[in-house]
Design brief:
This protein is of the alpha+beta class. The chain contains ten helices and 13 strands. Helix 5 crosses helix 8. The N terminus is likely disordered.
Length: 317
């Protein structure tokens, strides 16, 4: 039987134009190479995914990393009590604010310390403590922060507090959508450990860029933090707030792994948010990601993310 098949193959090859059999062979070889290349590319993509990305439900924020921070991270952890005391002292003396420390991440010549305010106004922020790698010591008196970062965090917390009832409407809407559809948010634990900055909830981040909110509130806060909500509300009564100076970034994720962001859910939510009345003055963005987040920086910048953002904000005036 084998001989007959071989003979038949030889006859067919002879019947074709010269080179016909080799053409078939080459075609098969090329197809095989293409498949191998695709397999190699897929494997490379999978390797990147495995290295950097994790399911958002599994992300704790403890995976957050900064460049060249392995050595300083170890020194900071060995001196954690001193680091915490220095950071709390810095926020209390410079910003009249009590904070609790959640996470310490080593960097080149120091460590970034992520904190959360105690009580209201509620916000997340961070400060940097220098570390001498040769002496393996932390510099408790050298704590510093990026210019304007903590100021903006305080303002975002005040704005969220002043318009607490209006933000509750947004919170309720997002709560209902998460129950209705296969979508999820980042965890509060992840926000505490570094994903959160300014006033951040599991659903959104609020950022103030200055304007009348800063003019009216910042100095008053630094002069006297012990004010009631009603006092803060009265400071913005009658003021015209520019939505360009207030940003609300909403981010949600697909609940299941290996599922693309759902266009129907996205479009419905964009429409709902656009039509919704009674929200605080701001420019709103909405991003719907797949199920993953970059564990090193708490971001998802994949091309498959569905976005409604700059310059096409949802504006609430």
């Amino acid at each position: 039987m084998t001989k007959k098949r071989l003979l038949l193959t030889g006859i067919l090859c002879s019947a074709l134009l010269l080179g016909g059999c080799s053409a078939l062979t080459n075609s098969n070889d090329e197809t095989g190479k293409e498949n191998e290349q695709k397999a190699e590319k897929k494997t490379e993509e999978e390797m990147i995914e495995d290295k950097y990305f994790v399911s958002v439900q599994d992300y704790t924020g403890k995976e957050y990393t900064l460049d060249n921070g392995e050595e300083t991270d170890k020194i900071a952890e060995e001196n954690r009590d001193e680091v915490e005391r220095a950071i709390k002292k810095y926020f209390k003396e410079e910003y009249k604010t009590e904070v609790k420390v959640h996470n310490i991440v080593g960097a080149i010549d120091g460590a970034t310390v992520f904190v959360e305010s105690v009580g209201k106004p509620h916000f997340y922020s961070y400060a940097i403590i220098p570390i001498d790698k040769d002496k393996k010591e932390v510099d408790s008196e050298g704590v510093w922060s990026q210019e304007g970062q903590i100021d903006a965090a305080i303002l975002s917390g005040l704005y969220a507090w002043i318009y607490e009832d209006e933000f509750k409407k947004l919170d309720h809407y997002l709560d209902e959508k998460v129950k209705e559809y296969p979508i999820v948010s980042i965890s509060e634990k992840a926000n505490q450990n570094g994903a959160g900055n300014y006033h951040t909830t599991p659903y959104y981040k609020l950022v103030i860029y200055g304007g009348i909110v800063q003019e009216k509130l910042l100095d008053e806060y630094l002069n006297n933090t012990d004010r009631s909500k009603e006092e803060w509300v009265s400071m913005l009564e009658g003021e015209s707030i520019n939505p360009a100076m207030v940003s609300v970034l909403i981010q949600l994720y697909m609940e299941e792994p290996d599922v693309e962001p759902d266009k129907e859910i996205f479009d419905e939510m964009v429409s709902d948010l656009s039509d919704m009345d009674g929200l605080p003055v701001a420019k709103y963005s909405f991003l719907l990601h797949d199920n993953t987040i970059d564990k090193t920086n708490a971001q998802n910048n994949k091309e498959n993310t569905l976005e409604r953002k700059a310059p096409n904000y949802i504006i609430k005036e």
